[in-house]
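*** Protein under study ***
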Amino acid sequence: MSAGRPLALTLGEPAGIGPDLSLAVWLKRRSLHLPPFYITGDIDFLAARARLLDLDVPFALVRPDEAAAAFDRALPVVALDMPITAQPGTPDDTSAPAAIASIRRAVADVLAGHAAAVVTNPIAKNVLYRADFADPGHTEYLARLAQEATGEAVMPVMLLWAPELAVVPVTIHIPLKNVVTQLTTELIVKTGRIVARDMAQRFGLARPRLAIAGLNPHAGEAGTIGEEDRDIVAPAVRQLQSEGIDARGPLSADTLFHDRARALYDVALCMYHDQALIPIKTLAFDHGVNVTLGLPFVRTSPDHGTAFTLAGTGKANAASLVASLKLAARLTEQAPTLAPVT
């Protein structure tokens, strides 16, 4: 991990499973060979959740630069200096301020060089929206924080990664009816540039292979099943190729995700949310990782939600958080900081 610095783990939605998973994985830190991390939160809140779950977790209130040394004997906590009172499954008025403050602190620590990467526990966007949260979600908020800190425009790209498959949705959380109006050649090209850059510099691939999915069935059948693949996607592929990027497409999405097809590329760029997320959640539901590309720092996150019904029960699966912590440590070893892609 970069310069021996710990990972900054956010609290996520306090009423969700993020606190539960954080406590559980620290207890298994040795058997899972986890990199050192600290959590940004409220030590009294975390201690209460540990008691509820009957977990014997000691805590250490630390500064970020003290976290690595404390990690083996106690779960390091960097205080947010605000009380958190949300109960499992029941967000309250402290939920949104705590989740937002936890993210801001983790990002500030990484940008200041005190932490190696940000690992985020799940948030509940509907809870944040009720508190006048202005960004569509985690990814966009992280990009705004990075831009505010650096003064550089940032285009975040969502990568869903697992050993079996890596996918990028070019358009993300928008209605399916809006995909055609928002999908442009320029957007695909910009996304492809960021993916190619980060897969090379962070994941260590000498020449990443990008498979570009078609929007329509059979990639449009030369315009007979929709013109978007011919007029929008194909020109983007040609532009990426002209820049020296190994890109192929548009490819029919229905034959893109079987075993032999996946062996031919490193990342699949998909035109809309479900085209990307259905295959990876089918192949790697419990251990997929959400990685934000395009940022000047590493950010990973479990590829699941807050699971309010599981919070406080001890039944939540920690595999995706474990994978997120390990991947964050791996990626910081490749390239701790990156300049924005234009």
In short: The longest strand covers residues 157-162. The CA atoms of residues 17 and 338 lie 31 Å apart. Residues 338-342 have pLDDT under 50 and may be disordered. The radius of gyration is 20 Å.
